[in-house]
Amino acid sequence: MTDSDPMPEHASDQPGYTPVFPDAVRTAIYVLGLIASITGLGFMCFVHPEIGGFISTAAGALTAGFGVAYNPVRLAGK
Contact at 8 Å (CB) between 24 and 31? Predict the structure, then answer.
C-alpha cells in the first residue's frame, strides 16, 4: 500500500499473492458467517443470550479462519 494507492499489495493483481481458497468458497463462507452472526444476534436478544454469544463468536472465528473479510476497497478494481 502506498500513499497514492489505497489498495493493499495482496489485494491487487500483482503476482506473488494467491488466495488459499477460491472466490466461490470465500463468498460462501462470508454469507454463512453473515447469516450466523444475524442468527446469533437474534438469539442474544430474544431467546438465550449465552447461545447467541456462542453462535456469533463461532461465526467470527470461522470467517477469520478462512481469511474472509468484507473490504470495499478490494472490490473497487473488479
Answer: no
Of the candidates 71, 1, 73, the one whose C-alpha atom is nearest the C-alpha of residue 30 is 71
The number of CA neighbours under 13 Å toward the Cβ of 13 is 4
> 3-class SS at 58?
helix
SS3 47: coil
Q: Tens digit of pLDDT for each residue in 17-30?
A: 667 777 788 888 88
Query: Cα(14)–Cα(62) distance, rounded to whole angstroms?
Result: 27
Give the pTM. 0.61
> Which of 55, 58, 27 lies closest to 39 in space, CA to CA?
55
Dihedral sign (CA 31, 33, 34, 39): positive
Grid coordinates in use for 2? 502506498
Contact present, 33 and 63 (Cβ < 8 Å): yes
